[in-house]
Amino acid sequence: MKILIINGPNLNKLGTRETDIYGNQNFEHYLEDLKKEFEGVELMYFQSNHEGEIIDQLHDTESMDGVVMNPAGFSHTSVAIMDAMAAIDTPVIEVHISNVYAREEFRQKMVTARNSKGVISGLGLDGYRLAIHNFLKGN
Ligand code: DQA
């Protein structure tokens, strides 16, 4: 099983960025925990602050069984990322660390969600784990 995690803009700042909302854990540390927990899974990680790079990465997922993606701010704005999700066969589970429905109104609309297998929002970094579990269950 090969799973790619994609994190969008500003998520390279996790651990120090708005810690009251996103917590104080750095994603690279969390990724080490994930790799230990899912030893049998080939887990890959890509983070970018650039829309086009995220699109290129989505196009490059033919060999993957699933993508766990937090498009971050692009979730609310990027028709191009939404289209890239529709253009590939690999299922994408969308994760948001915070509960976007409990935040500003502009965060409550996610254009990317329509092309996601499902969306997990508000469960902190645990959302990434749960998404991987769902791919492993295979339904
Ligand atoms: C986020 C929520 C987005 O609204 C925000 O722009 C982010 C992170 C989350 O993980 O909760 O950067 O996707």
Mean pLDDT over the full residue set: 97
Q: How many E strands?
A: 5
Structural class: alpha/beta
Largest sheet: 5 strands, parallel
Bound molecules: 1,3,4-trihydroxy-5-OXO-cyclohexanecarboxylic acid
Which residues sit in consecutive blocks of at least 5 with pLDDT less than 50?
none
Query: What portion of the residues fall into strands of 2 or more residues?
Result: 15-25%
- For the CA atoms, what is the radius of gyration? 14 Å
- Structure annotation, total helices: 5
Description:
The protein is of the alpha/beta class. Helix content is 32%, strand content 19%. The protein has a five-stranded parallel β-sheet, sandwiched between helices. Strand 3, helix 4 and strand 4 (92-96) form a beta-alpha-beta unit. Helix 3 runs parallel beside helix 4. The longest helix has 12 residues, at 126-137. The radius of gyration is 14 Å and the shape is globular. It starts with a strand and ends with a helix. The model has no long low-confidence stretch (mean pLDDT 97). Residues 10, 70, 72-73, 75, 96-98, 100, 107 line the site of 1,3,4-trihydroxy-5-OXO-cyclohexanecarboxylic acid (DQA). 1,3,4-trihydroxy-5-OXO-cyclohexanecarboxylic acid binds at residues 10, 70, 72-73, 75, 96-98, 100, 107.
